[in-house]
Amino acid sequence: MIRIRSLLPVAAAALAACGGAPAPEIVQVGLDSLPAATATFDESRGELVLEMNPIDIPAGSADHEGMIVTPIQRVDVPVTGFVSGFRVEAVDANGTILPIARLHHLNVIDPGRRELFAPIALRLLAASKETGSPSVNPMLVGMPLWEGQRLLIKAMLHNPEPQVLPGVKARVVFTFRKGGGPTPFFHAYAWQLDTKFPVGGDGGIKSFDLPPGRSETSYEAQPAVSGTLVGIGGHVHDFAKYLEFTDATTGEVIWRGEPILDSLGGVKEMPVQRFYRWNRMGVPIDRSHTYRVTVVYDNPTGQTIPFGGMGVVAGLFLPARGTRWPGVDTTNADYRADLANQLMDGNSVGEMAMMHSHHVHQPAAGEEEEHDDDAAAAHRH
Ligand SMILES: [Cu+2]
Q1: Which one of 274, 298, 319 terminates a domain?
Q2: Pair (88, 143) in one structural domain
Q3: Pairing of strands 186-187, 141-145
Q4: pLDDT per 10-residue tile (average), the chain, 381 residues
Q5: Distance 237 CA to ligand 1 centre (A)
Q6: Alpha carbon of 380 to ligand 1 centroid (Å)
Q7: pLDDT at position 4
Q8: Smaller CB count within 10 Å for the chain: N or C?
């Protein structure tokens, strides 16, 4: 049972002063009983760091890395301003930055604002070790955060060493500037559209059983507001042929991405496209239209692969001029189910998915495998 305290819509007056866009609608969500992470703003560096509590990563064994999903933690934003980029990292008990592979993924969720295509909490950031350090021009585009805004943060950590790795802290470093000035000109929000929206399967798992041969999985939804897409990318698993984002009302294919493969034929990454040009911010999105995400697989193994499929597009969106980004309806069944999944112990969910996870491309003896399929455990994004 989740208890959501004080459902009070608040106008973020401070934000209205910066940029041209109206302040987002904000719903203050309690969740006070969650453990608190820390937030530190360093104005001279232009960085806002959200750092999680230390956790011990279990030892790995010869055939298995140690892994742990952190408890979900709450963190309050200390200063109003704008995010224009980020990186994720993990540090050991001495504060030394660990190899990025120790951090499997890190997610930041905004429980007070909704997703564009579903009434669930906004996925503000979903970074994995492959994400790198994406950024936008801070004069042009920024994602607004306000002082006192409560965010949720969760990560999964790995340890290939044969001993416990103690006191590891995962963190996200936002490139951040204080609000109040005339820039950025555009307020941007992260968005996702998943083939298993709005809440996924048991425990919120967004991966699905992949049948043999060619298969197509899709999901359609209408956006909460109109606006402009400035960027798009996505995530798929091995054997994916392509991932597509379509205006189902007009039939127009807005984006199609084919996975970039590694030397073993596994999925290495998906291409990312920025739609904005010097004279045009991107692709218009109309709230009266329906949009569709489709992932197409060709599974050559002749067998159904449990949790083998996944398809999600994600990117950056600018609400139309004068449009306020919507808050959440905390009484909505999908919102509540999704939040309950996020608050669950990710290790029980992870183990369940792990038991069924597969390694399509086994590395040759002595070869380091960069591509890992235990990502099934991560797929509650
Ligand atoms: Cu996945």
Answers
A1: 319
A2: yes
A3: parallel
A4: 35 38 63 94 97 96 88 95 92 94 91 95 84 72 90 94 96 92 81 95 89 98 95 90 97 94 84 68 92 97 92 92 88 94 81 47 38 44 50
A5: 6
A6: 8
A7: 39
A8: N
Residue range(s) defining the domain that contains residue 238? 189-319
CA of 265 to the centre of ligand 1 (A): 16
Domain limit, last residue, from 166, 185, 204: 185
Cβ atoms within 10 Å of 179's Cβ, excluding its own? 23
Count up the domains in the chain and report the number: 2
Q: What single string gives the DSSP state of each residue in 46-114?
A: TEEEEEPPPEEEPPPBTTB-EEEEPPPEEEE--S-EEEEEEEEEEE-TTSPBPPGGGEEEEEEEEEEEE
174 and 53 together in one domain: yes
Residue 349 lies in a domain: no
How many angstroms is it from 188 CA to the middle of ligand 1? 25
What gap in Å lies between CA 372 and CA 160, rounded to an integer? Answer: 13
What does DSSP say about strands 291-299 and 165-178: parallel, antiparallel, or unpaired?
unpaired
**DSSP codes of every residue in 235-287:** EE-TTEEEEEEEETTT--EEEEE-PEE-TTSSEEE---EE--BTTB--EEE-T
Pairing mode, strands 273-274 and 213-221: unpaired
Between the CA of 112 and the centroid of ligand 1 the distance, in Å, is 25
pLDDT of amino acid 345: 84
Ramachandran assignment for 175, one of left (phi > 0), alpha (psi -120 to 50 degrees), beta (any other) = beta
If you measure from the C-alpha of residue 310 to the centroid of ligand 1, how many angstroms do you get, rounded to a whole number?
A: 5
Query: Residue 147 sits in a domain of what CATH number?
Result: 2.60.120
